[in-house]
Design a protein that fits this description.
Ribonuclease iii, N-terminal Endonuclease Domain, Chain A; 223 residues; mainly alpha
Length: 223
């Protein structure tokens, strides 16, 4: 049974070039002609459309909160959740290795495929078509999103605190990187000169280490 008509019904869009949808559903483990380029395009299109939707929904929300809302809407977990609701895994073309490891359930593969579909719709029908599809897929999330429930990360909290006190922003410096390329440990220092405060964070990426250092700095400030 051809799953494409069913999927097109689920996303509320009918392709004039079905080959684009086929490519969007093809993982790199299956073919050299796969969805990676469409995913790249779809990521940018999706980010813009969601930004536009949030801009219109919350006319009084500041830029920082809008950015955090958008990040929450387009993160892997949100994309994978929508893909799961569409039963997207049933339509994916995966190589033997990914099939054996149940790749059709992996959040990263599902999220990438959904972004690729957005890119495919954009190429097939233009921006208006992509906007309509994204609005349809995100209709529940856009109706229920609560801007007051935005989780601000430690770096954002620290930055906003220092700005409110008219202090310079913190400086982050990588102190060391240890381990093999696939399993590195980063050590980062966060320095706030005005307060003569330096904290050290450790994590599996620079970003994680910076967040930990920022959290420790906030803990020090608030203690």
């Amino acid at each position: 049974m051809n799953a494409l008509p069913v999927l097109q019904t689920r996303i509320s869009y009918s392709f004039t070039q079905p080959a684009l949808l086929q490519q969007a559903l093809t993982h790199r483990s299956f073919s050299a002609i796969n969805n990676e380029r469409l995913e790249f395009l779809g990521d940018s299109v999706l980010n813009f459309i969601i930004a536009h939707q949030l801009f219109n929904l919350f006319p009084n929300l500041p830029e920082g909160d809008l950015s955090r809302l958008r990040a929450k809407m387009v993160r892997e977990a949100s994309l994978a959740e929508i893909a799961t609701e569409l039963n997207l895994g049933d339509s994916l073309k995966l190589g033997e290795g990914e099939l054996k490891s149940a790749g059709w359930r992996r959040p990263s593969i599902l999220a990438d495929a959904l972004e690729a579909i957005v890119g495919a719709v954009y190429l097939d029908g233009g921006f208006d078509a992509a906007q309509q599809v994204v609005a349809f897929l995100y209709r529940d999330k856009l109706q229920t999103i609560d801007p007051k429930a935005i989780d601000k990360d430690a770096k954002s909290q620290l930055q906003e605190y220092l700005q409110s006190k008219k202090m310079d922003l913190p400086e982050y410096q990588v102190v060391s990187i240890e381990g093999e390329a696939h399993a590195q440990t980063f050590t980062v220092q966060c320095c706030i000169k005005k307060l003569k405060l330096t904290t050290t964070g450790v994590g599996t990426s620079r970003r994680v280490a910076e967040q930990q250092a920022a959290k420790l700095a906030m803990d020090e400030i608030q203690s």
